Amino acid sequence: MPSDERNLAVVAKRPGTYRAVLTTSYLPYPPPPGPGEVVVRMSLSTVNPSDTVTVSGAYSRTTFPMVPGFEGVGVIAEVGDGVSEELVGKRVLPLGSAQNWQRFKIVDAEWCVPVPDSITDEQACFAYVNPLTAWLMVERFCASGTRNVVVTGANSTIGAHLAELLNMRGIRPFGVLRSQNRPVAEPARWASVVHTENQHWMLNLSRDLGFDGADIVFDCVGGLQGAELDALLNAHGSFIHYGLASGTPLPADHFTGGRAGSLTFFRLRDVVHSIPRSELPALMAPVFGLIADGHLGSPVGERVGLSDLVEHLEKDAGVPGKVLIDVQR
Fold it and tell me: How far apart, in whole angstroms, are the C-alpha atoms of residue 85 and residue 176?
């Protein structure tokens, strides 16, 4: 490791909100990579809702202090025994763990997915959590004959990805928003959009869906809203729960018995950790291809250096779009 490099990192000291627990620190340099390991010099990272949930302590598997950051792109700087020297200088997505809010990350080489030349660092930075989740859910749950799909959090980045992918398959997306303050991107992609601030939102959504009802609900909100949306599924519909933006779980007793449809909890982590690591490049390949072709874009709202990230998050600016973190600044 060059002596003039410093391993700046943003650290969550304990569970809590960003404002309460994040600090900027200089960590020890990563040790020389062991067998099968590499050191990745991070280039860009971002802030994802999954980072917020992890820092909050909602996941029992999280230990503190920890470095957040599930998404990011970097360049392999060093390799350990058993790893080809030809990988040095190659761009990769280091998957399998958080810890991307630091300048240097040590990781097993098998967790590093090569980034194709057809996409930029910025595109690669956002290629993992939202695009891959949206792609996998549409691939796995939207069978032939799927017509109507309800998407909660429709104004989120992943909501926009889902709408785009559904349109590409000729499926009608119906959006649900918790607030009218932030509209959906690309309104023409949505069959209709309702706001839960409107007391008649369920009646309006039911009317828009028509007699066929919803074949699928993709829910990232949870809570009572999720329970209400279950009523709009047709007899063989499926409720896919993949996030908890409300901070409130689905009612425990709501999805037991009485329905022909199904409830599925989808977690990207479960997919990524259940397949052989040699299959990770193939898992990412369709997403890389779509991004290279101009699909699944993630608009950037603000750009900050890693050294300014804590201050930025404390402001809670609420600017639409993703935060792009220049890790080396």
Answer: 49
Residues of the chain short of pLDDT 70, as ranges, are 1-5, 60, 254-261, 316-320
Q: Is 54 helix (H, G, I), strand (E, B) or coil?
A: helix
Q: How far is residue 327's CA from residue 329's CA, in Å, rounded to a whole number?
A: 6
Give the number of C-alpha atoms closer than 13 A to the C-alpha of residue 1, restricted to the C-beta side: 19
Strand, coil or helix: 299: coil
Q: How far apart are CA 115 and CA 72, in angstroms?
A: 11
CA dihedral 137, 142, 143, 146 (to 10 degrees): 170
CA 88 to chain centre: 28
How far is the C-alpha of 68 from the C-alpha of 48, rounded, in Å? 10
The count of residues in the chain is 329
**pLDDT, tens digit, 9 for 90 and up, residues 24-73:** 999 988 899 999 999 999 999 999 888 888 898 877 688 899 999 999 99
DSSP element (H, E) containing 285: helix 280-292
The pairing of beta strand 72-79 with beta strand 37-46: antiparallel
Which helix (H) or strand (E) covers residue 194, if one does?
Answer: strand 192-195
Residue partners of 221: CB distance under 8 A and separation at least 6:
152, 153, 176, 178, 243, 244, 245, 246
Task: Count Cα atoms within 13 angstroms, Cβ side, for 144.
Answer: 0
pLDDT digits (tens, 9 = 90+) for 131-178: 999 999 999 999 999 999 999 999 999 999 999 999 999 999 999 999
H/E stretch holding 283 reads helix 280-292
Q: Rounded to an integer, what distance in angstroms lies between the CA atom of residue 55 and that of residue 18?
A: 7
Cα–Cα distance measured from residue 191 to residue 193, given in angstroms and rounded to the nearest whole number: 7
Query: CA 117, CA 87: separation in Å to the nearest integer?
Result: 15
